[in-house]
Amino acid sequence: MSATEHGTMNLKLIVWRQSGPDKPGRFETYDAKNITPHHSFLEMLDVVNEDLIKAGKDPIAFDHDCREGICGACSAVVNGVPHGGQERTTLCQLHMRKFKDGDAIYLEPWRARAFPILRDLIVDRTALDRLVQAAGFVSCHTGGVADGNAILIGKPEADYAMDAAECIGCGACVAACPNGAAMLFAGAKVAQLAELPQGQVEAPQRVAAMVKAMSDNDFGNCTNHYECEGACPKGVKVKFIARLNREFTKALFQETLGTISTNRGTSKE
Amino acid sequence: MILDGKAPTGKIQDSWDDHRFASLKLVNPANKRKYKVLVVGTGLAGASAAATLAELGYQVEAFCYQDSPRRAHSIAAQGGINAAKAYPNDGDSIYRLFYDTIKGGDFRAREADVWRLAQVSNNIIDQCVAQGVPFARDYAGYLDNRSFGGAQVSRTFYARGQTGQQLLLGAYSALSRQIGLGTVKMFPRTEMLDLVVVDGEAKAITVRDLVTGEVRTHVGDAVVLATGGYVNVFYLSTNAMGCSVTAIWKAHKKGAYLANPCYTQIHPTCIPQAGDYQSKLTLMSESLRNDGRIWVPKKKEDCGKAPGDIPEADRDYYLERKYPSYGNLAPRDIASRAAKEQCDEGRGVGPGGRGVYLDFSASIERLGEGTIRERYGNLFEMYERITDENAYKRPMRIYPAPHYSMGGLWVDYNLQSNIPGLFVLGEANFSVHGANRLGASALMQGLADGYFVIPYTIANYLAQTKPGKVTADDPECRKSIADVQAERKQLLGINGKKTVSEFMREVGVLMWNNVGMARSQQSLTDTLQKLPGIREEFWQNVKVSGSGDELNQQLENAGRTADFIEFAELLCRDALHREESCGGHFRVEHQYPDGEAMRDDANFTYSAAWQWKGTGQTPELHKEPLKFDNVHLAVRSYK
Ligand SMILES: Cc1cc2nc3c(=O)[nH]c(=O)nc-3n(C[C@H](O)[C@H](O)[C@H](O)COP(=O)(O)OP(=O)(O)OC[C@H]3O[C@@H](n4cnc5c(N)ncnc54)[C@H](O)[C@@H]3O)c2cc1C
Ligand code: FES
User: Fold this and answer.
1) Disulfide-capable partner of B425 in A210, B45, B173, B481 (CB 3.0 to 4.6 Å)?
2) B433 CA distance to ligand 1 middle (Å)
């Protein structure tokens, strides 16, 4: 935080460049000049890209949309840390006041088996969507549902569900995990819905289907490194992974007892 | 031409139910699967529509430009969603929500559409609760409410400061369920670049796969556009970087009328611009106005002082002063103009004197910092990340920013455009908000359109058409592909000197300065003179590198910018023709001595729907007269 209020900085960027999914990639070095402390990280990249375009070179491709930390699009590893390591902050909300003149910054895409690189810093995260498609929902139809106040939900339960629902689906947890696991992502969804009465009916089937979908989609296993929690820009807690494990054990147990079948096949039937 | 919105007549209380049951045809369940509906856009409006139509049995193909439907800009809505549940027992009703929306829109919306919105608002809350949306609850377990601008009741439901996110994730989960079941085919990272009209009906779209660059058509029996708003025409706005006018503009160029483009909403509570490099403006939810008091120094010479050093007596709480009954909760257009006025008078604070204070100290004293943190914690954090200032200790600085577009494609009561088979939902249409939208009403509209209106009204169209009428080898489809490819090729071949963002910034600054919060005949004519020059320069001097057969973000932006430049002309023309002030459209020539907007009901009680006549040609104006049988056209007063 040594950049002065009005001082501008010059930085070196060492960026992963890869022109397509099956193309070889390499690091390239660029200068980021005259960056103010008020530039956001992505606005700094905009400056570099304008220079590249003017020099007739290909700009750095990166995912971004809302630029206010909520859509989950932005995604890059900065100096080895997804989103750059400022607590509860997405890359688009990271500001250059966290850097100082002369810094060298390494920029890489999310690296995980489940997330193939599409170009430069852009990866394919549709595997996360497929986890939700497998069972990350309550199977209700539009219309014909009960009044919103018909089933009361205690404030602590509502707050717990909301804590889990903060997830923006950026995939930083997967990128941070040495095994490329999606347990924090899946755990948050399982926990949110298992906590609410509306989601409890299908809780065992949901957790079983999501666990299966994780292995079907090339996500690794969780071996309790808990890097995911540190990388999560929304502060989603690993307690939700514990909840997933509990829900899963419960579901298996209920299945053994014969009280439920987890094999109802919420999808593709 | 005089346009007919085909709103039902008769008692407004019964209008939607009567229409649904008596006028709309149904498609029998066994036949539904023979029809394919193309849904472009998977924000609140599109995701809810796609999910519901698929549940009903139609084949659905859905498209969005992001990598996942969960990232549509609906995700960014913070404050909440309205409904006429009247849980707090404070006098709310469907009629009051209807009335507030009509009045908030400055009497420039169709009555029956607004009534329907108010009526189905309650179903939306129930639906979202059933999906597992974690709305805020009180200690007894009941749904909690807060108040929003332009209303004197508490009817806004919320999920912390992330209501849009939670509602979208609800709709996304319903959509995902259908994708999993195979009833919706989802095409993310796919941008619609043309509408295909065959024999006068909308039957296909042409898209570009943003990863491979492939251009292709998708054919269906009806097309639903739910592609969001166009305020990125001002370059800096609260919208996401990818929000564009492209989908509706391409449809407009294929014959769809675009209505009231000059109705744009400038949101009063955004973080002020800090520098030229800035790429977007960030909203601080209007719900903050529940507990924050807005002020500027009374004396110009105090503007440079730290806010804490300005004594109470030297502060001007100008909204409370000017609008005693609504105070800090005055509607957005009014609050925005009032902020501009203070800054124009030289009493603004922060960089460039473009800012006013939003001060929480009184609420913190009254309720404690914990309560304020609970209500708005994430917003305060966001503010600090961007400005490096702690708003618990020092008032926030805010300034108005472009936020929402009330205008959009013209639709009738069935949400069908003037092109049969083309339906338009959510922010992309012009329907219910008139000249100004009230807070927490866009989420309501998007979900109303998608969950509860389109499933009925599209059936009426489909029931009267044969499925599979058009195929991909139709000459119109082939021509559309060729046109889209030719345009890409042209953009890539110019190889000029100016970048795409230089053009977009130039247009944005021009539009914001001349057509932003205040417009005059002079500023509009000036802008209309400059825009064609920018357009021509763009097509001669823009620099887009790379190729069309790969992921090429410059090429994507170039297309969007080209459309914005053309669209800006229409926006100005509409603003110039509307010789009155109403809602978000403020013409300096038309104001009361105290600076309030002056409507001209005798001459302008209509929606203006424009028909494309070619590049550089004057578009043709069609009018849809507005009739008010259930509210009295009054001067909108919030004093
Ligand atoms: C910061 C912010 C805060 C807000 N807060 C509130 C609030 O508290 N309460 C409230 O009621 N309203 C609020 N609003 C307004 C509200 O969020 C939006 O009006 C509403 O969500 C729009 O929903 P939509 O479905 O119409 O469009 P969007 O959510 O914008 O979705 C548009 C969809 O169209 C797709 N798309 C666009 N163009 C193309 C194309 N050419 N090809 C393919 N796909 C395309 C996109 O990918 C996306 O899926 C807020 C808006 C903003 C910006
Ligand atoms: S761009 Fe949306 S979270 Fe960063």
Assistant:
1) B45
2) 15
CATH architecture label of B267-402? Alpha-Beta Complex (3.90)
Q: What is the pLDDT of residue A264?
A: 55
Read off the DSSP letter of residue B21. Answer: I
pLDDT in tens, B235-257: 999 999 999 999 999 999 999 99
Please tell me whether residue A175 adopts helix, strand or coil conformation.
helix
pLDDT class of B151 with cuts at 50, 70, 90:
confident
Which residue in the block uniquely carries the two structure tokens 């719900």? B287
Q: Is the confidence at residue A266, as pLDDT, over 60?
A: no
Please report how many Cα atoms fall inside a 13 Å half-sphere around the Cα of residue B471, on the Cβ side.
Answer: 1
CA distance B182 to chain A (A): 7
Question: pTM score, two decimals?
Answer: 0.97
Q: Is the pLDDT of residue B120 over 50?
A: yes
Q: What percent of chain B has pLDDT over 70?
A: 100
Assign A1 a pLDDT band (cuts: 50, 70, 90): very low
> Which whole number is the average pLDDT over B384-393?
94
Q: Are B404 and B432 in contact (CB under 8 A)?
A: no
A89 Cα: distance to centroid of ligand 2 (angstroms) = 10
Taking the Cβ of residue A51 and every Cβ of chain B, the question of whether any pair is shorter than 8 Å is answered with no
> A95 with A106: CB under 8 angstroms?
no
CATH 1.10.1060.10 positions along chain A are 126-257
Quick: pLDDT tens for B409-437: 999 999 999 999 999 999 999 999 999 99
Q: For the domain covering A126-257, report its CATH number.
A: 1.10.1060.10
Write a three-state SS string for B541-591: HEECCCCCCCCCHHHHHHHHHHHHHHHHHHHHHHHHHCCCCECCECECCCE
Residues of B in contact with A114 (CB under 8 A): none
Residue B192 in contact with ligand 1 by CB distance below 6 A:
yes
Residues of B in contact with A63 (CB under 8 A): 67
CA distance A57 to B428: 36
The architecture that CATH gives domain B478-606 is Up-down Bundle (1.20)
Q: Which numbered atom of ligand 1 lies nearest the CA of B283?
A: 1
Pairing, β A122-123 against β A117-119: antiparallel
ipTM of the complex: 0.96
Name the superfamily (CATH) of residues A9-119: Beta-grasp domain (3.10.20.30)
Is the CB of residue B472 less than 8 Å from the CB of residue B217? yes
Is B154 in contact with B148 (CB distance < 8 Å)? Answer: no
CA distance B141 to B625: 46
Question: Do the Cβ atoms of A117 and A93 come closer than 8 Å?
Answer: no
Domain extents for chain B? Answer: 267-402, 478-606
Beta strands in A91-143 (DSSP E): 104-108, 117-119, 122-123
Whether residue B70 lies in the annotated active site: no
The count of other CB atoms within 10 Å of the CB of residue A154 is 14
Question: Which candidate, B510, B407, B421, B504, places its Cα nearest to that of B457?
Answer: B421
SS3 of residue B207 by DSSP: strand
- B176–A136 CB contact, under 8 Å: yes
pLDDT, averaged across chain A: 94
Distances (CA, A) of B235 to B54, B56, B402, B510, B550: 36, 40, 9, 10, 26
**Residue B346 and residue B343: Cα distance in Å, rounded?**
5
Domain with CATH 3.10.20.30 in chain A: 9-119
B83, B121 contact by CB (below 8 A): yes
Structure tokens at B620: 């043709």
| Residue of A140, A136, A139, A134 lying closest to A267 (CA atoms) | A134
